[in-house]
Amino acid sequence: MTRPKFAYRDGDTFVHGVDARAKLTALVVVSLGLTWASAGVTAAVGVVTYLVARSAGVSARELLRDVRLVLVILVVGTVARAVSDPAGLVPGAVAGTVASARFVVIIALAYTVSATTRPGDIRLAVESFLEPLPSVEETDWGTMFATAARFFPLVFEESRRVRDARKARLGERRSWYSRVRSTAFTLLIRTFRRADTVALAVEARAYSSERSSLRGLVWERTDTAFILVACSVAVVAVVV
Amino acid sequence: MIRFEGVAHERDGERALDGVSLEIDSGGFVLLLGRNGSGKTTLLRHMNALLTPDEGSVLVDGVPTDEDGEGARRKVGMVFQDAGSQIVAETVKDDVAFGPENLGLETDEIRERVDEAVSAVGATALLDRSPYELSGGELRRVALAGVLAMRPDVLALDEPLADLDYEGEKAVVERVVGANQDGKTVVVATHDAEPFVDLAERAVVLEDGSVAEDGTPDELFSRGLEGYGVRTPCSYR
């Protein structure tokens, strides 16, 4: 099997070692900060994000390859913004580019987090966030997030299989519309089936909300420092 | 003991199981044979309570599965035909630990069971690997380890040798035999009885969701089962 997009990759880098709670908190805080960020700050955060991703073993090439579909959507959005902005084509294009750049940085951050955090640790982090809330089944929510984190790459894997099956029978010679239509339809059905199988696999092994865990999360001083840096980035993004 | 009492199950408007009555004794080794769509997988899924009967009942140690599905899943461990789809975690270690975690065991106990199960299937070297990096044979062994780690009384295996090369097949058969010798009940649904024919003490042939034949492999294969879409092992030709 080829490693699907957004899947966890084992490693012992600094980012791998950061507590899942710290990484998820940093992702949310920086993403919120980026919502208000100027072009310059967005670019700076983008550079920092790239360095963090690189240190975690994620190359720019992999990142671009895996999120290229999202990039296409953002380019289309930017063009739409440019032609529809009442201020004119150039200001519209600039505003659209900055907005798209923010999304690109947020996606790169999310990609880095998912590539360096085990779904099991995401489960524990979500459980820990929800634990103080009354009448919330934190174990079920945690498992739901972890399963989604596992399932997201499987959808990409199915998509690759559908494309390969099409290519193997000279499907690339068909029109663009025909290719998209056949892929989307098949992918939808296979995704539902796969979801069903994952649910069965979980159920078959006696899933229970009273479950324990092989791993535990351990909060270190470096995690606190990580959060502080993330908060500082978010504050700078909002203030500057 | 697992008992099927007049079990019927409908799928997509058709009867996948139709009045199946069957008793599987503790510690036995049973082959489920039959062509594609004969109801083998559906029967196995009833043992693990992934499916419950539309008519009749399935009892695991005397308890109906539709009353205590979780209890049935603790006692009957099932390995799917597509082993890759059974993997629910991002590393082998986490996946094998998934079942014991669901049993609510202490961390040390989970660790012990994970080590024991991966060692039993010869997958210790794979512990920290991602499932995406594994071959078909390795995935199947990991799926088996994930079930063994729950220490079920019954192993329900759906086409456990599909897509395996000779070495992979040998490893899985050895582990299954070992589990049976340790006292576990083994139920294997398969097209290809050859690797199991000398090990199983009983064979049940399904046809259109009903039990068509039930006896020792020797009795059934001496008569030939080609009419049910089952290839006759070499030793009986």
From TrEMBL, chain A:
Compartments in which it is found: Membrane
Keywords of the record: Cell membrane, Membrane, Transmembrane, Transmembrane helix
Top-rank taxon: Archaea
Coiled coil: none
GO CC annotation terms, alphabetical: plasma membrane
Membrane topology note: Multi-pass membrane protein
Residue stretches spanning the membrane: 24-53, 65-83, 89-113
InterPro entries: ABC/ECF_trnsptr_transmembrane, ECF_transporter_component
Major localization listed first in the record, in broad terms: membrane
Entry-linked PANTHER family: SLL0384 PROTEIN
Protein name: Energy-coupling factor transporter transmembrane protein EcfT
TrEMBL record, chain B:
Localization: Cell membrane
Keyword flag ATP-binding: yes
GO CC entries: ATP-binding cassette (ABC) transporter complex
GO function term, MF aspect, one: ATP hydrolysis activity
Transmembrane segments: none
Domain ABC transporter: 2-233
Protein's UniProt keywords contain Cell membrane: yes
Pfam families to which the protein is assigned, alphabetical: ABC_tran
Domain of life: Archaea
Membrane topology qualifier: Peripheral membrane protein
Keywords: ATP-binding, Cell membrane, Membrane, Nucleotide-binding, Translocase, Transport
Family: Belongs to the ABC transporter superfamily.
Role this protein plays: Probably part of an ABC transporter complex. Responsible for energy coupling to the transport system.
Record's protein name: ATP-binding cassette domain-containing protein
Organism this protein belongs to: Halorutilus salinus
